[in-house]
Prior knowledge:
The protein is α/β, with parallel strands linked by helices.
Amino acid sequence: MKALTIDHTAPGHLALATVADPEPAAHQALVRVRSFSLNAGEVHHAVPGGEAGTVPGWDAAGVVVRAAADGSGPAVGTPVVTLGPDGAWAELRAVDTDLIGVAPEGADLGPISALPVAAGTALRALRRIGPILGRRVLVTGAGGGVGRFALQLAVRGGAHVTAVTGDPAKADALRALGAHEIVTDPAALQNLEPVHGVVELVGGAHLVAAHGCLADHGVLVAAGHISGDGEQFPYGALFGNDRRHNRQIVTYYLLDDAAGLGADLTWLAELTARGELDPQVALRTDWTRVAWAAAELAGRRVPGKAVIDVR
């Protein structure tokens, strides 16, 4: 089969090569990939630091061509969306059936391929907060891939959502996705009405400021760290010096929380196919141009998700 492999001598550390077809384990289905999406973690870390000759990629959508030998997962011919630690950027992918969601027949698999990492993380981070109906939720890094999904899903869940973005030009787009308030200066968070939960995707000073917004018994889910900065809390912040208590900070990583993920991906794919969840695909091209697409994403010149079609 053809696949994009890591080649540190090639542009973007990627080369289109011919490699052996994957051999699925008993609990894996073999999927013919139609489209895959790029994530910031891949273009910044996984590909530049990856082992030469390996096939990278977390998110992909396609059609099952061989069902799992153990009888689990979807049948041959089923359109699916998949997640895994690697192997997505290829014509064929062997993937654990626990990490497969079923896509609606006839749906465009391009936007659906953008769901697993970003929408899966957003959905499960919100669940870590707990019930959000009628409550206030803060999303930092709301203009990024996970942030846009967290915003939409929190609004769908009945929350009053405040979106934090460092780019004022994104404010109108975030309002269009349902944000009730927009904050472009983290310093302004000190004047925000206390929130029940935070989906925190930036780290550094943003995390510290967002923690200060939590009401009693509030939960901050740290699911990203795009700033690359560490956190330094002011004296008293972690023992209720501001008279708020029992607040939590929890970390989250999707691949360590795989139980039931297939059902979540199926639901997210259905929402997307019905037009009720917008993956915000801002760049779509074929895999001969993946090095360029990855550079655009790494340079923050893609105001949404990047989708690559396998041709």
